[in-house]
Structure formats: C-alpha cells, structure tokens
User: Fold Acyl-coenzyme A thioesterase THEM4 from Thermus thermamylovorans.
Amino acid sequence: MKAIQLHYPPEWAHCYGCGYLNPMGLHLQTYWNRERKESRTAFTPSPHHTAIPGFVYGGLLASLVDCHATATAAAAKADAEGLDLEKTPLRFVTASLKVDYLKPTPLGPELVLVGRAREVKGRKVVVEAEVYAGEALTVRGEAVLVQITEGFGG
Ligand SMILES: CCCCCCCCCCCCCCCC(=O)SCCNC(=O)CCNC(=O)[C@H](O)C(C)(C)COP(=O)(O)OP(=O)(O)OC[C@H]1O[C@@H](n2cnc3c(N)ncnc32)[C@H](O)[C@@H]1OP(=O)(O)O
Assistant:
C-alpha cells in the first residue's frame, strides 16, 4: 500500500512534516485502513527532538499530529466520496490544531499515531488523533482541516 503523502504531486511535497521533497523534513507517511476507517503512521524521534532529557519535545508531537491529520482528512474525504486520491488529489490545510499532552512521551521508542475523522462535511474534516509510545497513550490531538481548491495564500 502506498502512503497517502506519496500521492501528493511535487508542488505539494515540500511540507516540513510530510513532504517527500523536503530534505530536512520529517517525511511522515500515513496509511489509511478502509475497513477500520482509521489512519496510522509511525515515527521515531531523534535525540535532537528532546524537550527534557529522556522526553520528546511537544512541538514535534504537534507537528506529527498536524501532518497525520492532514493526510487523514484527504483519505477520509476520498473514502466518503468514493474517490481515488491518485487520480483526484485533495488538498487540505490545517485551520485549527489542538493538542493535549496527557503524559510525558518517552524519547527512544517508535511512536504510533492513529487518526479518525469525526466529521466530514463540505470542505471541512475534523480529525482526532492519538499518539502512543508502546501501550501508553501520551498525546491526544484534534484538528480542523479545510480543503482548498485553488491557490493557497492568495
Ligand atoms: C492525496 C492527494 C493530496 C494532494 C495534495 C495534498 C496536499 C496536502 C498538503 C500537504 C501539506 C501538509 C500541510 C500540513 C498542515 C499545514 O501545516 S497547513 C499550513 C498551516 N495552515 C494554514 O496556513 C492555513 C491558513 N488559513 C487559511 O488559509 C484559511 O483560513 C482556511 C483554513 C483555508 C479556511 O479559510 P476559508 O477557505 O475561507 O474557510 P471557510 O469557508 O471560512 O471555512 C470552511 C469551514 O472550516 C471551518 N473553519 C475555518 N477556520 C476554522 C478554524 N480556525 N477553526 C475551526 N473551524 C474553522 C469553518 O467554520 C467552515 O466550517 P462549516 O461552516 O463549513 O462547518
């Protein structure tokens, strides 16, 4: 299965969090499970992602939630409308991002993010995401993603 971000056309592939053309980026790759209506990604923070020694920087965790939510929105909307992302790219940007840090996230183990669309309505998708370190749920996020159809920032 191909990651959702690998469907992005080159002009949308420079994102710091998930763009495959950003050499300094995190290269997050999100996968959509059609049966479970759920997205997943994994990321292993590096030592320079430290907040307090031994624990992951919260801004990085917010970035992971952000990019995972963006891809989840595209997949959920495509799923809801029976679209093929490869043929019909859906461009979502983040309108709102909320992150709750439930407990410190240990630096070292691989982190797993799970995402679900709580609402798919018009151009808006509301995504809930969870970050797990092993069995421990350490972060819960919620994002509002809005689909853009033309240029961005005009
Ligand atoms: C697979 C193939 C893909 C192909 C290709 C994909 C490319 C995949 C991108 C890659 C890249 C990743 C990117 C990472 C995520 C970023 O980092 S994106 C960068 C950070 N985000 C930004 O800079 C966004 C800046 N903001 C804006 O441009 C505009 O405010 C927005 C978000 C486009 C919304 O403006 P608008 O189009 O005028 O929206 P508007 O009609 O007012 O609202 C639409 C709906 O959203 C709601 N809404 C709008 N703003 C908010 C808000 N702040 N809070 C709550 N709700 C809101 C509205 O209430 C409305 O809801 P309904 O009334 O329909 O229920």
